[in-house]
Amino acid sequence: MTKDIYADVIVNISVDSLDKAYQYKIPDGIREKVKVGQAVMIPFGVSDRMIKGYVIRISDKPEYDVSRIKSISGLCKKTLDTSERMLQLAAFMKNRYQCTMNEAIKTVMPVKSKVKTVKKKSVVLKLDKEKARAVFLELNSKKNAAARARLLKCLIDSENGILDYNYIKNEENIGPSTFNSLERDGIIAVEAEDVFRNPKMDYGSWGRNVILNEKQQEIADDITGEYEKGIRREYLIHGITGSGKTEVYMAVMEKVIGLGYQVIVLIPEIALTYQTSGRFYKRFGGRVSILNSKMSAGERYDQYMRAKNGDVDVIIGPRSALFAPFERLGLIIIDEEHESGYVSETIPRYSAVCVAGELARLSGASLILGSATPSIETYYRTSEDYKGDKPVKLYRLDIRGGNSRLPNIHVADMREEFKNKNYSIISTGLRDAIGDRLRKNEQVMLFLNRRGFSGFISCRNCGEVVKCPHCDVSLTLHYGHNRKKLVCHYCGYERDMVTTCEKCGSKYIGTFGTGTQKIESMVKEMFPEARVLRMDADTTTGKDGYVNVLESFGAHEADILIGTQMIIKGHDFPLVTLVGIVAADMTLNMSDYRAAERTFQTLVQAAGRAGRGNRPGDVYIQTYNPDHYAVTASVKQDYGEFFNKEINYRRLLSYPPVSGIMSIMTASSKEAYAKKIIDDVARNTLLYFKGNDAAKVIGPAPHFLAKICDSYRFVLYVKCGDDKLLYRLRDMIVEYLDVMYEKKRFDVWIDVD
Ligand code: ADP
Ligand code: ZN
Ligand code: ZN
After folding, report:
1. Is 178 near ligand 1, meaning CB less than 6 Å away?
2. Ion ligand 2: residues, CB < 5 A
3. Mean pLDDT comparison of 34-43, 161-170, 321-330, 690-699, highest-scoring range
């Protein structure tokens, strides 16, 4: 008798209390088929209801009394299997992001279920046309053979005796029995083949093969040289927009593919469909595939299977394309690595840059990050100060690849405009420039920095923003029980709403808000003859919404494009010679320590949109903070200057990446209970860090949304230079709360970084 074997199965239920593996016996009939990563059906709980699960380990040792171990019911046919590597990655994510294993597995499987493959059916004539004609004449003289005769006639008349099944069926009104009968007699055959549903692709006008310039070649050679030596690591290509980073990626990819490996290229969702992917198609042809959320389930499944079967070498897509099922993954590229879209908004809230690092490590692949404005976190890892693991090798590309030039950047001080009685949101300089472009029949982009409408308070006369005296982030307006108050999201500091500016005494003070619609109507009023397009979440619903707007603008069907973040992401419009950044410092006032970073990135990226063709471009930055280093550095397009100032600021206030930061939030319907728990956590945290001066504990304080749906929330922040200490503390807190408090009566969220 063969020995029994057992599988540890993760059940498909995302509940903390079930977040562990359950052991099941593998029945003899499917022993060969059950591998790690296999989706199976299992009886679960007292009622033995059937649910789905994934096998994560196989062994021959039962962990319980054998008589109590249930058996797997069978393989789950509709669900795709995953691989051992993806399960390891899921385990990393579970650990890192505090989600359940089931949530992590769902994330690493962007395509979970099988979608019926589309078959293309054809009808093929099996006789030569001479014989077929004889059969036709015979059928034609019979009484009940009209349909068969019709079908045969069509085949005889066709060029090569093959017709599309569906076409002929509908067009000639021919039923299945007719096909069957002729097939039985050996006169025709109905043949089916799989067709892959390929997403609509615009090959565009790309494809001229570029000869790398000296600097580009140097970088490509260095990376491929290391690659051939077996070195795998992380690289950052810091290159201004248009400096040819994509050309370098493609050169390295060519080499890596030549060595028999596969490549994943992540680009921001918004940059995907329009132009970028076309370049990759032109270079690598049909061995390239795309995965994104705009594709239909069938399209996604087909591309996923092509990747799994090894039919493609390159997968391009946003964040989730990271989980393409490649067996020979050799390289991951993340373009515009600073993009906030690489951080998931749903649980687990993972960062694709971080997870890609782990996936590269697990797969023995290298990782290339690229950006004109690298995230402070990534850039810090290239610096000599950085002592942690995963250092990053830095390359620089400082000149534009083609012959386009960097634009002239002008700063419009909105405080001056206000003093000069221009109360509009468009400065005089920008208005004149728009008029000028309209006369020259050139195009204009007006960009509104929409993120950061978080209710901060500023003065329209001098631009002063009301900030927290402890945290240096803007205070947020809240409507309390019967009075307005200003609150700090970090430490809970509170004060009454102000009515006059503390700096200049002006009473023009309040929340600052403006939307794309408002700008649109204002622009139309100023320039009635201009053709204006607006692109934001409202105007771009539907599968191809934003593509249509961009295509229309690209075809010069409009003079002015107004939009939010979306319009500045990597699109090339040669006729755009003017970019106006309407409220440049909006993000500067976000109550987030990354405010300056976001602002700098946005300004540099937006400026990069002007003058990409042969005509020089102009950029107007409208701001209330012309002296802020995020603004001055972006005017000079000087990343180094910005980084140095910013990293000092982070060091001074112990913010990441210099210091790790952890937030702990408790919530309960009983205010006192939530408070008691957070106080307890705070006390223990202080004990944990006793004698460690590098750690700081801030709070506890009521959360900035102190009461939601009758649930009271409190937060505590912990800052510490050593991430590992924070992760250990997190695990200890989770365990402690589990033992000490009643799970049903409260919720807790812990977030590192
Ligand atoms: P990035 O990815 O850094 O924004 P791209 O690779 O998109 O830059 O390059 C911008 C433009 O310059 C593209 O049209 C590209 O084909 C062109 N380009 C880049 N490098 C060269 C080169 N060495 N010779 C000619 N054109 C180049
Ligand atoms: Zn003021
Ligand atoms: Zn504060």
Report:
1. no
2. 459, 461-462, 464, 501, 503-504, 506
3. 321-330
